[in-house]
Amino acid sequence: MKHPAYGQLRQVSATASVLLENNPSSMTLEGTNTWVLRAPGAAESVIVDPGYEDLDHLPKLTEPGPVTLILLTHHHPDHAEGAPWLAERVGAPVRALDPALCRDAEPLAEGETISAAGLEIEVVHTPGHTADSACLRFGDHLLTGDTILGRGTTVLSDLGSYLNSLRKLLLLPAGLTGLPGHGPEIGDLRATVREYLAHREQRLDQVRAALAELGDDATARQIVEHVYADVDPALWGPAEHSVRAQLDYLIGGASPTLR
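^ that's the sequence the OP posted. Answer follows.
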């Protein structure tokens, strides 16, 4: 699907529109997707992940009409930094799993259903990219933050938690469309989750093989250079975080069955 142009609110479905922030990078792909959620006929909207405190981007989120709630999928600044600015301008509370990110509202809770903007939004805690990562399910959509990207794979802080999160997503109903924090929407979310699980299994096998060849005292950087030789070196820094997570997982003695 064609990704939206910067500064132009694009309708993705009857209940979801996206505004792409102009902050492209190797980590953010084309930029951060800020999602505007509203049921047909509803007067107010829910804003998810306002992005950086970007005064070219944030004011455009006030144009579609009143905002009743701001939600954050996790604490990284390319998703959450602009939330206080936006909350001040639109007079809406901010909610996230991390209490430190909240403003005039309680933290989100696993399994909670939020009624706002004519929608029923279910909170799904999906740690792994960060401890406070959440996905948001409404109708036949799942807003995935950085847990599942529109293209490529995400950087990890905790592989064991991430694998459990992917398995949890497989238990959701079939036919969900993924609305990611970066990259284009995902037509078959369940198929993508299965691809992510298979990819993680492959990477774990590669790390095991690298340890066998380089020795158990090999550094994460050495393993990155060995395993990620086919990846742009500009991404080796983020890859090192994921390799550390894989090493922690393997040192913990896990023997995962991913399928």
